[in-house]
Protein backbone atom coordinates (compact mmCIF):
# COMPACT_ATOMS: atom_id res chain seq x y z
CA UNK A 1 0.00 0.00 0.00
CA UNK A 2 1.12 3.57 -0.71
CA UNK A 3 2.24 5.55 2.33
CA UNK A 4 1.25 9.17 1.90
CA UNK A 5 1.44 11.80 4.63
CA UNK A 6 -0.20 15.20 4.49
CA UNK A 7 3.27 16.74 4.17
CA UNK A 8 3.54 15.09 0.73
CA UNK A 9 0.46 16.94 -0.51
CA UNK A 10 0.73 20.54 -1.76
CA UNK A 11 -2.63 22.20 -2.34
CA UNK A 12 -3.29 25.44 -4.22
CA UNK A 13 0.13 25.38 -5.87
CA UNK A 14 0.99 27.65 -8.81
CA UNK A 15 3.17 27.06 -11.86
CA UNK A 16 3.37 28.83 -15.18
CA UNK A 17 3.87 25.70 -17.31
CA UNK A 18 4.47 21.94 -17.35
CA UNK A 19 8.24 22.28 -16.99
CA UNK A 20 7.92 24.28 -13.80
CA UNK A 21 5.35 21.84 -12.40
CA UNK A 22 7.71 18.89 -13.01
CA UNK A 23 10.59 20.83 -11.47
CA UNK A 24 8.49 21.40 -8.35
CA UNK A 25 7.66 17.69 -8.09
CA UNK A 26 11.30 16.65 -8.59
CA UNK A 27 12.51 19.14 -5.99
CA UNK A 28 9.96 17.88 -3.45
CA UNK A 29 10.97 14.25 -4.07
CA UNK A 30 14.63 15.17 -3.56
CA UNK A 31 13.94 17.11 -0.36
CA UNK A 32 11.92 14.19 1.01
CA UNK A 33 14.88 11.87 0.47
CA UNK A 34 13.21 9.79 -2.23
CA UNK A 35 15.69 10.53 -5.02
CA UNK A 36 19.21 11.73 -5.66
CA UNK A 37 20.01 15.07 -7.20
CA UNK A 38 19.58 14.91 -10.97
CA UNK A 39 16.38 12.83 -10.99
CA UNK A 40 14.68 15.79 -12.65
CA UNK A 41 16.46 15.05 -15.92
CA UNK A 42 14.98 11.56 -15.90
CA UNK A 43 11.50 12.97 -15.37
CA UNK A 44 11.95 15.42 -18.23
CA UNK A 45 13.34 12.66 -20.43
CA UNK A 46 10.38 10.45 -19.65
CA UNK A 47 8.02 13.27 -20.63
CA UNK A 48 9.75 13.58 -24.00
CA UNK A 49 9.21 9.87 -24.67
CA UNK A 50 5.46 9.91 -24.03
CA UNK A 51 3.16 12.31 -22.21
CA UNK A 52 2.42 11.27 -18.63
CA UNK A 53 -1.06 12.80 -18.74
CA UNK A 54 -3.53 10.07 -17.69
CA UNK A 55 -6.81 11.86 -18.25
CA UNK A 56 -9.41 13.40 -15.93
CA UNK A 57 -7.01 16.28 -15.20
CA UNK A 58 -4.29 14.04 -13.75
CA UNK A 59 -0.62 13.70 -14.72
CA UNK A 60 1.98 11.37 -13.22
CA UNK A 61 5.50 12.59 -14.13
CA UNK A 62 8.21 10.07 -13.20
CA UNK A 63 11.71 9.06 -14.25
CA UNK A 64 12.95 6.78 -16.99
CA UNK A 65 14.11 3.20 -16.53
CA UNK A 66 17.68 4.48 -16.71
CA UNK A 67 17.17 6.76 -13.69
CA UNK A 68 15.67 4.14 -11.38
CA UNK A 69 19.08 3.73 -9.78
CA UNK A 70 18.70 7.29 -8.49
CA UNK A 71 15.63 6.34 -6.44
CA UNK A 72 16.48 5.89 -2.76
CA UNK A 73 13.00 4.88 -1.65
CA UNK A 74 9.58 4.75 -3.28
CA UNK A 75 7.36 7.76 -2.69
CA UNK A 76 5.17 10.41 -4.26
CA UNK A 77 4.70 14.15 -4.06
CA UNK A 78 1.25 15.46 -4.97
CA UNK A 79 0.65 18.99 -6.28
CA UNK A 80 -2.75 20.52 -6.87
CA UNK A 81 -2.95 23.32 -9.45
CA UNK A 82 -6.52 24.71 -9.28
CA UNK A 83 -5.88 27.00 -12.28
CA UNK A 84 -4.68 24.06 -14.39
CA UNK A 85 -1.42 23.35 -16.23
CA UNK A 86 -1.27 22.89 -20.01
CA UNK A 87 0.17 19.38 -20.43
CA UNK A 88 0.24 19.24 -24.23
CA UNK A 89 -2.28 18.30 -26.93
CA UNK A 90 -4.91 20.45 -25.24
CA UNK A 91 -4.84 18.46 -21.99
CA UNK A 92 -5.08 20.36 -18.70
CA UNK A 93 -3.64 18.86 -15.50
CA UNK A 94 -5.06 19.93 -12.15
CA UNK A 95 -3.44 17.21 -10.03
CA UNK A 96 0.21 16.34 -10.66
CA UNK A 97 1.64 13.30 -8.89
CA UNK A 98 5.43 13.11 -9.02
CA UNK A 99 6.51 9.48 -8.63
CA UNK A 100 9.78 7.90 -7.55
CA UNK A 101 9.73 4.10 -7.62
CA UNK A 102 12.33 1.34 -7.55
CA UNK A 103 11.91 -1.85 -9.60
CA UNK A 104 8.25 -2.70 -10.28
CA UNK A 105 6.90 -0.99 -7.17
CA UNK A 106 5.47 1.77 -9.33
CA UNK A 107 2.96 -0.62 -10.95
CA UNK A 108 1.22 -1.38 -7.67
CA UNK A 109 1.44 2.31 -6.78
CA UNK A 110 -0.12 3.40 -10.07
CA UNK A 111 -2.81 0.76 -9.79
CA UNK A 112 -3.76 2.06 -6.35
CA UNK A 113 -3.83 5.68 -7.50
CA UNK A 114 -5.76 5.08 -10.70
CA UNK A 115 -8.25 2.91 -8.85
CA UNK A 116 -9.20 6.05 -6.91
CA UNK A 117 -8.71 8.64 -9.65
CA UNK A 118 -10.45 6.83 -12.49
CA UNK A 119 -13.74 8.53 -11.62
CA UNK A 120 -14.33 11.94 -13.22
CA UNK A 121 -16.29 13.29 -10.26
CA UNK A 122 -13.56 12.30 -7.81
CA UNK A 123 -10.86 13.87 -9.98
CA UNK A 124 -12.89 17.08 -10.29
CA UNK A 125 -13.28 17.22 -6.51
CA UNK A 126 -9.54 16.84 -5.97
CA UNK A 127 -8.85 19.70 -8.38
CA UNK A 128 -10.47 22.27 -6.09
CA UNK A 129 -10.45 20.75 -2.59
CA UNK A 130 -8.88 22.96 0.09
CA UNK A 131 -8.81 20.48 3.00
CA UNK A 132 -5.57 18.47 2.88
CA UNK A 133 -6.92 15.80 5.23
CA UNK A 134 -9.93 15.15 2.99
CA UNK A 135 -7.71 15.31 -0.11
CA UNK A 136 -5.46 12.57 1.30
CA UNK A 137 -8.43 10.43 2.36
CA UNK A 138 -9.99 10.57 -1.10
CA UNK A 139 -6.66 9.91 -2.83
CA UNK A 140 -6.07 6.78 -0.76
CA UNK A 141 -9.67 5.61 -0.85
CA UNK A 142 -10.08 6.24 2.87
CA UNK A 143 -12.86 8.81 2.70
CA UNK A 144 -15.93 8.34 4.88
CA UNK A 145 -18.15 7.66 1.89
CA UNK A 146 -18.26 3.93 1.16
CA UNK A 147 -18.41 2.97 -2.50
CA UNK A 148 -18.25 -0.31 -4.37
CA UNK A 149 -16.01 -0.62 -7.41
CA UNK A 150 -16.05 -2.83 -10.50
CA UNK A 151 -12.98 -4.76 -9.35
CA UNK A 152 -15.08 -6.72 -6.85
CA UNK A 153 -17.77 -7.84 -9.31
CA UNK A 154 -17.71 -11.24 -11.07
CA UNK A 155 -20.66 -11.67 -13.43
CA UNK A 156 -22.03 -14.71 -15.25
CA UNK A 157 -19.34 -17.20 -14.40
CA UNK A 158 -19.55 -20.99 -14.56
CA UNK A 159 -19.93 -22.13 -10.95
CA UNK A 160 -21.34 -25.27 -9.42
CA UNK A 161 -21.53 -24.46 -5.70
CA UNK A 162 -22.23 -21.61 -3.31
CA UNK A 163 -18.86 -22.27 -1.70
CA UNK A 164 -16.88 -21.55 -4.85
CA UNK A 165 -18.74 -18.29 -5.44
CA UNK A 166 -17.88 -17.31 -1.87
CA UNK A 167 -14.25 -18.26 -2.44
CA UNK A 168 -14.08 -16.04 -5.53
CA UNK A 169 -15.55 -13.13 -3.56
CA UNK A 170 -13.08 -13.64 -0.73
CA UNK A 171 -10.24 -13.60 -3.24
CA UNK A 172 -11.49 -10.34 -4.73
CA UNK A 173 -11.69 -8.73 -1.27
CA UNK A 174 -8.18 -9.93 -0.49
CA UNK A 175 -6.89 -8.41 -3.74
CA UNK A 176 -8.34 -5.08 -2.57
CA UNK A 177 -6.56 -5.45 0.81
CA UNK A 178 -9.98 -5.40 2.47
CA UNK A 179 -9.59 -8.68 4.36
CA UNK A 180 -6.89 -10.86 5.90
CA UNK A 181 -6.29 -14.60 5.57
CA UNK A 182 -8.34 -15.32 8.69
CA UNK A 183 -11.39 -13.78 6.97
CA UNK A 184 -10.98 -16.05 3.96
CA UNK A 185 -10.68 -19.17 6.12
CA UNK A 186 -13.74 -18.27 8.18
CA UNK A 187 -16.03 -17.09 5.39
CA UNK A 188 -15.69 -20.30 3.35
CA UNK A 189 -16.57 -22.40 6.40
CA UNK A 190 -19.52 -20.28 7.59
CA UNK A 191 -23.11 -20.89 6.52
CA UNK A 192 -24.51 -18.41 3.99
CA UNK A 193 -27.60 -16.32 4.73
CA UNK A 194 -30.38 -16.53 2.08
CA UNK A 195 -31.36 -13.04 0.98
CA UNK A 196 -34.15 -14.15 -1.36
CA UNK A 197 -34.56 -14.61 -5.13
CA UNK A 198 -31.54 -16.90 -5.17
CA UNK A 199 -29.20 -14.30 -3.65
CA UNK A 200 -27.05 -15.20 -0.63
CA UNK A 201 -24.89 -13.23 1.81
CA UNK A 202 -21.66 -14.41 3.48
CA UNK A 203 -19.37 -12.71 5.99
CA UNK A 204 -16.87 -13.40 8.78
CA UNK A 205 -16.15 -12.04 12.24
CA UNK A 206 -12.37 -12.00 11.98
CA UNK A 207 -9.98 -10.52 9.42
CA UNK A 208 -12.09 -7.51 8.37
CA UNK A 209 -9.68 -4.69 7.40
CA UNK A 210 -11.98 -2.16 5.73
CA UNK A 211 -15.54 -1.83 4.50
CA UNK A 212 -15.95 -3.72 1.24
CA UNK A 213 -18.41 -5.82 -0.73
CA UNK A 214 -17.83 -8.42 -3.45
CA UNK A 215 -20.53 -9.94 -5.65
CA UNK A 216 -20.40 -13.05 -7.85
CA UNK A 217 -23.26 -14.06 -10.14
CA UNK A 218 -23.62 -17.55 -11.55
CA UNK A 219 -24.29 -18.02 -15.24
CA UNK A 220 -26.35 -21.12 -14.54
CA UNK A 221 -28.72 -21.42 -11.57
CA UNK A 222 -27.88 -24.29 -9.21
CA UNK A 223 -29.21 -25.53 -5.89
CA UNK A 224 -27.87 -25.45 -2.35
CA UNK A 225 -29.79 -27.58 0.14
CA UNK A 226 -32.78 -27.48 -2.18
CA UNK A 227 -32.67 -23.69 -2.64
CA UNK A 228 -31.68 -21.83 -5.80
CA UNK A 229 -28.32 -20.04 -5.93
CA UNK A 230 -28.01 -17.24 -8.47
CA UNK A 231 -25.51 -14.94 -6.80
CA UNK A 232 -23.45 -14.44 -3.63
CA UNK A 233 -22.55 -11.21 -1.83
CA UNK A 234 -19.58 -11.32 0.57
CA UNK A 235 -19.27 -8.52 3.11
CA UNK A 236 -16.30 -7.08 5.00
CA UNK A 237 -17.48 -4.56 7.61
CA UNK A 238 -15.50 -2.43 10.05
CA UNK A 239 -17.75 0.62 10.54
CA UNK A 240 -21.32 1.88 10.21
CA UNK A 241 -20.47 3.53 6.88
CA UNK A 242 -21.38 0.27 5.14
CA UNK A 243 -24.82 0.00 6.73
CA UNK A 244 -26.58 2.12 4.11
CA UNK A 245 -25.29 -0.16 1.38
CA UNK A 246 -26.37 -3.27 3.29
CA UNK A 247 -29.85 -1.82 3.64
CA UNK A 248 -30.07 -1.46 -0.15
CA UNK A 249 -29.63 -5.21 -0.52
CA UNK A 250 -33.15 -5.65 0.86
CA UNK A 251 -34.64 -3.45 -1.85
CA UNK A 252 -36.60 -5.44 -4.45
CA UNK A 253 -35.35 -3.31 -7.37
CA UNK A 254 -31.73 -3.60 -6.27
CA UNK A 255 -32.06 -7.37 -6.06
CA UNK A 256 -33.47 -7.49 -9.60
CA UNK A 257 -30.51 -5.47 -10.85
CA UNK A 258 -28.09 -7.84 -9.09
CA UNK A 259 -29.75 -10.76 -10.84
CA UNK A 260 -29.77 -9.43 -14.41
CA UNK A 261 -28.07 -6.04 -14.65
CA UNK A 262 -24.69 -5.26 -16.13
CA UNK A 263 -21.75 -4.10 -14.04
CA UNK A 264 -22.50 -0.37 -14.32
CA UNK A 265 -26.15 -0.87 -13.37
CA UNK A 266 -25.12 -2.96 -10.37
CA UNK A 267 -22.57 -0.39 -9.19
CA UNK A 268 -25.07 2.44 -9.57
CA UNK A 269 -27.71 0.53 -7.62
CA UNK A 270 -25.41 -0.57 -4.79
CA UNK A 271 -23.90 2.91 -4.48
CA UNK A 272 -27.30 4.55 -4.14
CA UNK A 273 -27.96 5.79 -7.67
CA UNK A 274 -31.22 5.52 -9.57
CA UNK A 275 -31.40 2.77 -12.16
CA UNK A 276 -34.43 1.86 -14.32
CA UNK A 277 -36.08 -1.44 -13.57
CA UNK A 278 -34.07 -4.19 -15.24
CA UNK A 279 -36.08 -6.65 -17.29
CA UNK A 280 -33.78 -8.77 -19.40
CA UNK A 281 -30.51 -6.91 -19.49
CA UNK A 282 -27.72 -8.47 -21.45
CA UNK A 283 -25.21 -10.06 -19.11
CA UNK A 284 -21.82 -8.43 -18.83
CA UNK A 285 -20.16 -11.79 -19.32
CA UNK A 286 -21.84 -12.37 -22.70
CA UNK A 287 -19.81 -11.56 -25.78
CA UNK A 288 -21.61 -10.62 -28.97
CA UNK A 289 -21.61 -13.17 -31.76
CA UNK A 290 -18.89 -12.33 -34.28
CA UNK A 291 -16.69 -10.50 -31.77
CA UNK A 292 -12.99 -11.26 -32.13
CA UNK A 293 -11.20 -12.30 -28.93
CA UNK A 294 -7.45 -12.21 -28.46
CA UNK A 295 -5.67 -13.54 -25.37
CA UNK A 296 -2.03 -12.51 -25.10
CA UNK A 297 0.79 -12.73 -22.55
CA UNK A 298 2.62 -9.51 -21.63
CA UNK A 299 6.34 -10.14 -21.98
CA UNK A 300 7.68 -6.71 -20.94
CA UNK A 301 10.19 -7.00 -18.12
CA UNK A 302 8.56 -4.17 -16.16
CA UNK A 303 4.97 -4.86 -17.20
CA UNK A 304 2.63 -2.21 -18.55
CA UNK A 305 3.75 0.98 -16.84
CA UNK A 306 2.75 4.32 -18.35
CA UNK A 307 4.96 4.27 -21.47
CA UNK A 308 4.06 0.84 -22.97
CA UNK A 309 0.46 1.41 -21.89
CA UNK A 310 0.43 4.63 -23.92
CA UNK A 311 1.85 2.77 -26.93
CA UNK A 312 -0.90 0.16 -26.58
CA UNK A 313 -3.67 2.76 -26.27
CA UNK A 314 -2.40 4.71 -29.27
CA UNK A 315 -2.47 1.51 -31.32
CA UNK A 316 -6.01 0.65 -30.19
CA UNK A 317 -7.26 4.13 -31.12
CA UNK A 318 -6.32 3.50 -34.76
CA UNK A 319 -9.28 1.15 -35.10
CA UNK A 320 -12.98 1.98 -35.24
CA UNK A 321 -14.05 -1.17 -33.41
CA UNK A 322 -15.12 -1.15 -29.79
CA UNK A 323 -12.28 -2.85 -27.92
CA UNK A 324 -12.24 -3.91 -24.27
CA UNK A 325 -9.49 -5.57 -22.26
CA UNK A 326 -9.33 -7.46 -18.99
CA UNK A 327 -6.43 -8.77 -16.94
CA UNK A 328 -7.19 -12.48 -16.67
CA UNK A 329 -4.38 -13.02 -14.16
CA UNK A 330 -5.84 -10.48 -11.74
CA UNK A 331 -9.38 -11.41 -12.86
CA UNK A 332 -10.41 -7.79 -13.44
CA UNK A 333 -13.58 -6.67 -15.15
CA UNK A 334 -13.34 -5.65 -18.84
CA UNK A 335 -12.46 -1.97 -19.41
CA UNK A 336 -12.07 0.23 -22.48
CA UNK A 337 -8.73 -0.42 -24.17
CA UNK A 338 -8.78 3.18 -25.42
CA UNK A 339 -8.37 4.63 -21.90
CA UNK A 340 -4.79 5.01 -20.68
CA UNK A 341 -5.92 5.40 -17.08
CA UNK A 342 -7.93 2.18 -17.18
CA UNK A 343 -5.09 0.24 -18.81
CA UNK A 344 -2.61 1.35 -16.13
CA UNK A 345 -5.18 0.53 -13.43
CA UNK A 346 -5.17 -3.14 -14.52
CA UNK A 347 -1.81 -3.52 -12.76
CA UNK A 348 -0.24 -5.61 -15.52
CA UNK A 349 3.16 -7.15 -14.76
CA UNK A 350 5.33 -9.50 -16.79
CA UNK A 351 3.58 -12.79 -17.51
CA UNK A 352 0.05 -11.49 -17.00
CA UNK A 353 -2.59 -12.61 -19.50
CA UNK A 354 -4.75 -9.97 -21.20
CA UNK A 355 -7.96 -10.74 -23.05
CA UNK A 356 -9.06 -8.25 -25.72
CA UNK A 357 -12.56 -8.32 -27.23
CA UNK A 358 -13.16 -6.31 -30.41
CA UNK A 359 -16.53 -5.65 -32.06
CA UNK A 360 -16.75 -3.85 -35.41
CA UNK A 361 -15.79 -3.99 -39.05
CA UNK A 362 -12.04 -3.94 -38.38
CA UNK A 363 -12.18 -6.18 -35.27
CA UNK A 364 -10.08 -9.01 -36.72
CA UNK A 365 -7.41 -6.61 -37.98
CA UNK A 366 -7.35 -4.85 -34.60
CA UNK A 367 -6.85 -8.02 -32.56
CA UNK A 368 -4.19 -9.39 -34.92
CA UNK A 369 -2.31 -6.09 -34.74
CA UNK A 370 -2.53 -5.95 -30.95
CA UNK A 371 -1.19 -9.49 -30.70
CA UNK A 372 1.86 -8.58 -32.79
CA UNK A 373 2.62 -5.32 -30.99
CA UNK A 374 2.30 -6.95 -27.55
CA UNK A 375 4.59 -9.78 -28.63
CA UNK A 376 7.13 -7.22 -29.87
CA UNK A 377 7.20 -5.46 -26.48
CA UNK A 378 5.25 -2.24 -27.05
CA UNK A 379 8.45 -0.33 -27.70
CA UNK A 380 10.48 -2.12 -25.00
CA UNK A 381 12.58 -5.25 -24.66
CA UNK A 382 10.75 -8.50 -23.95
CA UNK A 383 11.52 -11.76 -22.18
CA UNK A 384 13.00 -14.49 -24.35
CA UNK A 385 11.26 -17.15 -22.23
CA UNK A 386 8.13 -18.46 -23.99
CA UNK A 387 4.86 -17.86 -22.10
CA UNK A 388 3.33 -20.74 -20.12
CA UNK A 389 0.14 -20.47 -22.17
CA UNK A 390 -0.13 -19.83 -25.93
CA UNK A 391 -1.45 -16.59 -27.37
CA UNK A 392 -4.82 -17.21 -29.03
CA UNK A 393 -7.30 -15.48 -31.32
CA UNK A 394 -10.88 -16.71 -31.65
CA UNK A 395 -14.21 -15.55 -33.06
CA UNK A 396 -17.23 -15.63 -30.75
CA UNK A 397 -20.18 -17.61 -32.09
CA UNK A 398 -23.24 -19.45 -30.90
CA UNK A 399 -21.27 -22.67 -31.33
CA UNK A 400 -18.00 -23.88 -29.89
CA UNK A 401 -15.28 -21.32 -30.55
CA UNK A 402 -12.55 -22.06 -33.02
CA UNK A 403 -9.26 -21.24 -31.39
CA UNK A 404 -6.31 -20.34 -33.57
CA UNK A 405 -2.98 -20.61 -31.83
CA UNK A 406 -0.45 -17.94 -32.72
CA UNK A 407 3.08 -18.77 -33.75
CA UNK A 408 4.12 -18.94 -30.09
CA UNK A 409 2.07 -22.18 -29.91
CA UNK A 410 2.82 -24.87 -27.36
CA UNK A 411 6.41 -25.60 -26.34
CA UNK A 412 8.05 -28.32 -28.40
CA UNK A 413 8.56 -30.48 -25.30
CA UNK A 414 4.94 -30.22 -24.14
CA UNK A 415 3.37 -33.37 -22.71
CA UNK A 416 -0.41 -33.80 -22.78
CA UNK A 417 -2.85 -36.01 -20.94
CA UNK A 418 -6.65 -36.16 -20.51
CA UNK A 419 -8.27 -37.20 -17.23
CA UNK A 420 -11.95 -37.57 -16.32
CA UNK A 421 -13.30 -36.07 -13.09
CA UNK A 422 -15.32 -38.59 -11.07
CA UNK A 423 -15.96 -36.47 -7.96
CA UNK A 424 -19.69 -36.49 -7.21
CA UNK A 425 -19.86 -32.69 -6.90
CA UNK A 426 -17.19 -31.84 -9.45
CA UNK A 427 -14.28 -29.55 -8.67
CA UNK A 428 -15.57 -27.12 -6.09
CA UNK A 429 -13.12 -25.19 -3.92
CA UNK A 430 -11.67 -28.02 -1.79
CA UNK A 431 -10.77 -30.59 -4.49
CA UNK A 432 -9.61 -27.73 -6.72
CA UNK A 433 -7.22 -26.64 -3.96
CA UNK A 434 -5.87 -30.21 -3.70
CA UNK A 435 -5.27 -30.23 -7.45
CA UNK A 436 -3.52 -26.85 -7.43
CA UNK A 437 -1.28 -27.87 -4.53
CA UNK A 438 -0.27 -31.00 -6.44
CA UNK A 439 0.59 -29.02 -9.58
CA UNK A 440 2.71 -26.54 -7.59
CA UNK A 441 5.01 -29.36 -6.43
CA UNK A 442 6.65 -29.61 -9.83
CA UNK A 443 9.15 -27.47 -11.71
CA UNK A 444 6.95 -27.31 -14.78
CA UNK A 445 4.49 -25.04 -16.55
CA UNK A 446 1.07 -26.71 -16.48
CA UNK A 447 -2.09 -25.52 -18.22
CA UNK A 448 -5.51 -27.14 -18.13
CA UNK A 449 -8.57 -27.06 -20.40
CA UNK A 450 -12.12 -28.29 -19.79
CA UNK A 451 -12.79 -30.20 -23.00
CA UNK A 452 -16.50 -30.60 -22.29
CA UNK A 453 -17.00 -26.84 -22.01
CA UNK A 454 -14.43 -26.16 -24.74
CA UNK A 455 -12.61 -23.59 -22.57
CA UNK A 456 -9.23 -22.07 -23.24
CA UNK A 457 -6.11 -23.38 -21.55
CA UNK A 458 -5.58 -21.71 -18.18
CA UNK A 459 -2.87 -21.99 -15.54
CA UNK A 460 -3.33 -25.10 -13.41
CA UNK A 461 -1.52 -23.32 -10.56
CA UNK A 462 -4.37 -20.82 -10.07
CA UNK A 463 -7.20 -21.91 -7.77
CA UNK A 464 -9.47 -19.15 -9.07
CA UNK A 465 -8.98 -20.27 -12.68
CA UNK A 466 -9.54 -23.93 -11.87
CA UNK A 467 -12.89 -23.33 -10.17
CA UNK A 468 -13.93 -20.93 -12.94
CA UNK A 469 -13.75 -23.80 -15.46
CA UNK A 470 -17.09 -25.03 -14.08
CA UNK A 471 -16.02 -28.67 -13.80
CA UNK A 472 -18.73 -31.19 -12.93
CA UNK A 473 -18.68 -34.96 -12.62
CA UNK A 474 -17.78 -36.63 -15.91
CA UNK A 475 -15.98 -33.66 -17.44
CA UNK A 476 -12.71 -34.37 -19.22
CA UNK A 477 -9.72 -32.19 -18.41
CA UNK A 478 -6.79 -31.79 -20.80
CA UNK A 479 -3.48 -30.99 -19.09
CA UNK A 480 -0.47 -29.63 -21.01
CA UNK A 481 2.86 -29.63 -19.17
CA UNK A 482 6.31 -28.45 -20.23
CA UNK A 483 9.57 -28.04 -18.43
CA UNK A 484 12.06 -30.07 -16.43
CA UNK A 485 9.46 -32.06 -14.46
CA UNK A 486 6.66 -32.12 -17.04
CA UNK A 487 6.26 -35.91 -17.02
CA UNK A 488 6.34 -36.08 -13.21
CA UNK A 489 3.67 -33.39 -13.11
CA UNK A 490 1.36 -35.27 -15.49
CA UNK A 491 1.86 -38.51 -13.54
CA UNK A 492 1.18 -36.77 -10.23
CA UNK A 493 -1.92 -35.02 -11.54
CA UNK A 494 -3.30 -38.29 -12.91
CA UNK A 495 -2.70 -40.06 -9.60
CA UNK A 496 -4.32 -37.36 -7.44
CA UNK A 497 -7.37 -37.14 -9.74
CA UNK A 498 -7.70 -40.92 -9.68
CA UNK A 499 -7.61 -40.86 -5.86
CA UNK A 500 -10.51 -38.39 -5.77
CA UNK A 501 -8.66 -35.17 -4.90
CA UNK A 502 -9.13 -35.69 -1.18
CA UNK A 503 -12.75 -36.82 -1.43
CA UNK A 504 -12.19 -40.49 -2.09
CA UNK A 505 -13.01 -42.54 -5.17
CA UNK A 506 -16.49 -42.77 -6.59
Provide a short characterization of the protein structure.
By secondary structure, this protein is an alpha+beta fold. It has helices at residues 18-31, 39-49, 105-117, 120-128, 132-139, 162-175, 181-189, 243-248, 252-260, 263-270, 306-316, 340-344, 363-376, 429-439, 463-467, 486-498; strands spanning 9-10, 53-55, 58-59, 75-86, 92-100, 153-157, 193-196, 199-203, 212-224, 227-236, 292-297, 322-327, 335-336, 353-359, 392-395, 402-405, 415-420, 445-450, 458-459, 476-482. A six-stranded antiparallel β-sheet has the order 13-12-14-11-15-16, with helices on one face.
Structure characterization notes:
The structure is a single chain. The protein has 506 residues and is of the alpha+beta class. 32% of the residues lie in helices and 23% in strands. The strands form 4 sheets. The chain has a 6-stranded antiparallel beta sheet, with helices on one face. The chain is globular. The two termini are 46 Å apart.
How helical, in percent, are the residues?
Answer: 25-40%
Count of β-strands:
20
Major sheet details: 6 strands, antiparallel
Beta-strand content: 15-25%
Report the average pLDDT across residues.
Answer: 83
User: Any low-confidence stretches, pLDDT <50, length ≥5?
Assistant: 278-285, 398-408
Helix/strand class: alpha+beta
Rg result: 24 Å
Inertia-based shape: globular
Number of alpha- plus pi-helical segments = 16
- Give the N-to-C terminal Cα separation: 46 Å
Strand order of the largest sheet: 13-12-14-11-15-16
Amino acid sequence: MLELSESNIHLNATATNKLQAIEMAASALEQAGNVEQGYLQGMLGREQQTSTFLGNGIAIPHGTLETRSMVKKTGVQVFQFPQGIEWGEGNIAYVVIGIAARSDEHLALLRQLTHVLGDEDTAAQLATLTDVEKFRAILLGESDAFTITEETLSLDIEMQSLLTLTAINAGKLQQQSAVENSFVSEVVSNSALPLGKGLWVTDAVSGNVKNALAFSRAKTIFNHNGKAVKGVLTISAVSDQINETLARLLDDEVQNILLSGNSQQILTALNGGKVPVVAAAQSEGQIATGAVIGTFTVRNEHGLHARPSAVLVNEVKKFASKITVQNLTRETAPVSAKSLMKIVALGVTQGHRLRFVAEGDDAKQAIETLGKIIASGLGESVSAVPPAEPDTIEVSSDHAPQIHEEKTGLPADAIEAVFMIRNEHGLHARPSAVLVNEVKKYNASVAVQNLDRDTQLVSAKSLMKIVSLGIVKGHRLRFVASGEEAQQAIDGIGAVIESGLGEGKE
